[in-house]
Design goal:
The protein is an alpha+beta fold. It has six helices and 13 strands. The protein has a domain of 107 residues: Beta Barrel (Ku70, Chain: A, Domain 2), CATH 2.40.290.10. The strands form four sheets. The chain has a seven-stranded mixed beta barrel with strand order 1-2-8-11-10-9-7. It has a two-stranded antiparallel sheet with strand order 3-4. A two-stranded antiparallel ribbon has the order 5-6. The C terminus is likely disordered.
Length: 293
């Protein structure tokens, strides 16, 4: 089933315009969420807003939005004023410059969207992508939508384009805020660390080699719970900090990874470690705990 576009937009660079369609590059439908229930009867709980002065429930039509400019003092905005504060939505991706692909630090990456050519934009779409492939550059610009102006990067992928939403500079904390103590890098240790990195290196990143084990485990535990089992977490000891000999740890790692590589040339997903045990409950107990919501 072909994915559905979530928006239409137009890329502009110079006097060239490229009509495109936006598609979500990732999906969150696999996320697992839990509902809040009343422990006594198992019914769903409903959230409501309560006025801290009058101590009563407030309905939606009685609510307004305000900005706290000093402790306990707010300036109130009407819906019309909030609309006026929004950036005019143009659905236009304006390219301001092209930069080398490695000039954008991944720490600035936010959401990603696939771009596909819209009607009449096939040739210009292909041209822009091929130009970036041959020059090794990405397009940097802005995208105005939903009342906001987003900083974005356009980059080629396979035979298409990706719009990578970026954080603005003020949204990224400087690494210099961290207090990192100095440490000596010894030549022999560096040599062993480099050998270890080479030994467990791959020519490319294959995301299919990695599975979300916690997601699969949670799904399985939920199913067992539905079938009437109680889930009991096993107690685990807190990890104890230990001082290790760096040279010995590197040598042991080289030896271990070397033997694993010769025994199993193809990488396999890590086996799941058991973290829970179950015990059967009676049907009567299972029925009593079943939610009504």
């Amino acid at each position: 089933m072909a994915p559905r576009s979530i928006a239409n937009a137009t890329i502009t660079f110079g006097l060239v315009t490229v009509p495109v369609k936006l598609y979500a590059a990732s999906q969150s439908s696999e996320s697992i969420s839990f509902n809040l229930l009343h422990q006594k009867c198992g019914s769903r709980l409903k959230q409501f807003y309560r006025c801290i002065d009058e101590e009563n429930e407030v309905s939606r039509d009685e609510m307004v939005k305000g900005y706290e400019f000093t402790k306990g003092q707010y300036v109130i905005f009407s819906e019309e004023e909030l609309k006026a504060l929004e950036q005019k939505t143009t659905q236009e991706i304006v390219v301001n410059e092209f930069v080398p692909a490695d000039a954008v630090d991944p720490v600035y990456f936010d959401k990603a969207y696939y771009l596909g050519p819209d009607r009449g934009g096939d040739r210009a779409y292909r041209l822009l992508g091929e130009a970036m492939r041959q020059t090794g550059k990405w397009a940097i610009g802005t995208y105005t939508a939903r009342g906001k102006e987003y900083l974005v990067a356009l980059r080629p992928i396979e035979d298409g384009l990706v719009m990578q939403q970026l954080h603005y500079a003020h949204e990224v904390r400087p690494f210099s805020e961290l207090e990192i103590e100095g440490g000596e890098v010894r030549e022999q240790e560096l040599k062993l660390a480099t050998m270890l990195a080479d030994q467990i290196s791959s020519d490319e990143f294959n995301p299919d080699s990695y599975q979300d084990q916690s997601h699969h485990k949670l799904r399985a535990l939920i199913q067992r719970k539905i079938e009437g089992e109680d889930i009991v977490a096993l107690r685990t000891e807190e990890p104890k900090a230990q001082v290790i000999d760096l040279m010995e740890a590197l040598k042991a790692s080289l030896s271990s990874s070397g033997s694993k590589k010769s025994a199993a040339p193809a990488r396999k997903p890590a086996r799941r470690a058991p973290v829970a045990e179950t015990k059967k409950t009676s049907r009567a107990s299972a029925g009593k705990g079943r939610s009504r919501g």
